[in-house]
Amino acid sequence: MALMTVEEATALITSGVSALGVEDVPVQAAAGRVLARDLAARRTQPPADMSAMDGYAVRGADIAQTPARLAVIGESAAGRPFAGTVGAGQAVRIFTGAVVPEGADTVVIQENVSREGDTITTTAPTAALRNVRKRGCDFSADAPGLFAGRRLTGRDIMLAAAMDHATVPVARRPRVALLQTGDELVLPGQGTGNDSEIVVSNAFGLAELARRAGADVTDLGLIKDDLAAIRAVVARALSGEFDLVVSSGGASVGDHDLMAPALKAEGVDLSVHKIALRPGKPLMFGHRGTVRVLGLPGNPVSSHVCGMVYLVPLIRALQGDSRPGPETVPARLAADLPPNDVRRDFMRATLERRADGSIHAIPCTSQDSAMLSILSAADCLLVRPPFAPAGRVGDPCEIIPFAD
């Protein structure tokens, strides 16, 4: 079987994928969710010309020459605007965030003013329109401020709230079922100490990746290498309770790799591919109706890397995320590397920031795909394209930083 490129596999997995639905959530709960529709402002901000400083609201023409003496006729504070009009030779005491009164076009900061009773004298020139936030300089009513497909940050929900939205339309979270097979696997703390046992770890890492990508995750547990037992759990996973079923292990075609036969027996239109990436090569993908199935390798590091490369973008695409990723950022090599072969390589690496601000990637000494200690110690995946030439210290490279 010819190796499929990473790009071809990604296109296959995300083909025809769109957001699952829309729900309104309170704005304070919207961080990390994907905006489902463009969000327009419900008001203009600021709603009037506002002072950006504490000082005095004046007419710019009156202070073109300094010193200038002006009569103080009132006060404007945030939430308590001055009701009159500033005329020639007049000033209004004003505070940050207060409405600039009619007639005034400039705010002289209080440090540039001396005051005696109700008379002020300006001590430094102030240009017209200084220290004034003009009406609508931030955003205007009915103008879009946030756009569909954006994963909302804390800064975004501040903007949504300021635009007067108590609720925000976001994509429904994908419902993901995780299952893992293997006679050798035991849960943490539940082993007998037998050398043939392996403590399960994949599901914990995949669950965290899925949750960080925006999914609701249900772990359906460990399943022994028994076709009937696997089919029973698969049947539940495909019942409509979930949007995506993710398995770890059994993605190859050996005598004990029963996940593919179980999925096919339950009506999943399934294909198995060998992907040109390292670590991780076997990959299953299919669907039954609207439920998608993704089968990842059982090797712990391979499972996690494939989760970053395939599972996370799929979950994001199911929310209509305009940037499903995985996104790389530039760095420089901190060690020489030999030429690469046909597979796209995702090497574990640590990062070092130099005094000049540049980021340098240091490949971990071992790239063994079973060593979770190396994965845990790494800061990123160093991505090497197929057939990349030998790399030298200082050469540009691309990395995928770990988000956790």
Features of the shown structure:
single chain, 404 residues, alpha/beta, Molybdenum Cofactor Biosythetic Enzyme, Chain A, Molybdopterin biosynthesis moea protein, domain 2, Molybdopterin biosynthesis moeA protein, domain 3, 6-stranded mixed β-sheet, 7 helices, 26 strands, 31% strand, elongated
Overall spatial form: elongated
As for the number of domains, it is: 4
Q: How much helix, percentage-wise, in residues?
A: 10-25%
CATH domain class of the largest domain: Alpha Beta
What's the tally of helices? 7
Report strand order across the widest sheet.
7-4-6-5-9-8
pLDDT averaged over residues: 92
Radius of gyration (CA) equals 30 Å
CATH homologous superfamily label of the largest domain = MoaB/Mog-like domain
CATH architecture of the largest domain: 3-Layer(aba) Sandwich
Quick one: biggest sheet?
A: 6 strands, mixed
Extended strand count: 26
Protein name: Molybdopterin molybdenumtransferase
Pathway: Cofactor biosynthesis; molybdopterin biosynthesis
Keywords: Magnesium, Metal-binding, Molybdenum, Molybdenum cofactor biosynthesis, Transferase
Family: Belongs to the MoeA family.
What does this structure look like?
- It is built from 7 helices and 26 strands.
- It is α/β, with parallel strands linked by helices and 404 residues long.
- It has 4 domains: 160 residues, Molybdenum Cofactor Biosythetic Enzyme, Chain A, CATH 3.40.980; 50 residues, Molybdopterin biosynthesis moea protein, domain 2; 84 residues, Molybdopterin biosynthesis moeA protein, domain 3; 73 residues, Beta Barrel (Beta-clip), CATH 2.40.340.
- It has a 6-stranded mixed beta sheet with strand order 7-4-6-5-9-8, with no helix packed on it. The protein has a 6-stranded mixed beta sheet with strand order 16-13-17-21-20-18, sandwiched between helices.
- Strand 20 and strand 21 form a beta hairpin.
- Helix 3 packs parallel to helix 6 and helix 4 crosses helix 5.
